[in-house]
Amino acid sequence: MIYIAIILSLIAAIFLLSCCGKSKAVDTSVQDKVIKMDSLISDFINDTIKPLYSKKQIELKLKKLANTPPPTDLAMGAMCYSPSMIDTSSVSYICPICGEKTIYKFGVYSYSFNDDLEYGISAARREVSKIRGVNIKLDETQFCSHCRIVDIDQPQLGVWINIAGERDTNKIYGITYRDLKLLTEFFDDKLKYTDDYDYEYPLVERLDRLEELLGIRIDK
What we know:
By secondary structure, this protein is an alpha+beta fold. 44% of the residues lie in helices and 14% in strands. It has helices at 2-48, 55-67, 111-128, 177-187, 207-214, and strands spanning 90-94, 101-105, 135-139, 158-162, 169-173, 192-194, 200-202. The chain has a three-stranded antiparallel beta sheet with strand order 3-4-5, with helices on one face. A hairpin with a 6-residue loop joins strand 1 (90-94) and strand 2 (101-105). Helix 3 (111-128) runs parallel beside helix 4 (177-187). The longest helix has 47 residues, at 2-48. The protein is globular, with a radius of gyration of 30 Å. It starts with a helix and ends in a 6-residue tail after the last helix. Residues 20-48 have low confidence and may be disordered.
C-alpha cells in the first residue's frame, strides 16, 4: 500500500508540473501578442498624427517660401483633355450635416458653379482631409436649403481655419478644392503646386492666396 501511495503521489506531481509548464507557455504567447499590438498602435499614431503649428511658426514658413528661389524644374502637364459631359438637367446635393437633399437646376447657374457642384465639393472634401498643421473645417451650409441661414443667389464653399493658440478663426468663402491643394502643398513644405492639367508652378506665385486663406500677412 505504501508503494502504491508513493507511485500515485509521483504521478500527481508530474501531472501538476506539466500543467504549470503549459500554463506558462500560454501566458507567454498572449503576452507576445499584446506587445505586438501595442507596437502596431504606436506606429499608427506616429504615422498619422502631426503637431499643430503656432502662428509664429506659420509666419516663418511663409517667409521661408517667400525668400526661397522658385524651382525651375517644372513638369509640363497634358496638352489637352477631352471635355467632360455634364448633365444639363439637375443635380442633387446631399447635406453631410442634416442629410437633406437640395436639387439644383443646371440652367439657372453658371457653368463653373455647375461643375463645382457636381465635382468640386467632393474634391474639396478629399483635399481638406489631407491638410495637417491647423484646425480646419469645410463649410458647405450655403448649398443646403435646410441649413443655410439666408437665401443667396449662388452658394459658395467656405473654409474655417483656426491656428493653435489663437482665439480668432479665419473664415473665407468662395474657395475651391484648388485652394485646399495649395494649403496641402504648403504644409508639406513643397515649393510647387499642380493644376488640373498636371502642370507644375512655383508655389510662391500663390503666396498672396495662402496668406488670405490663413489670415496672416507677412512683410515681403
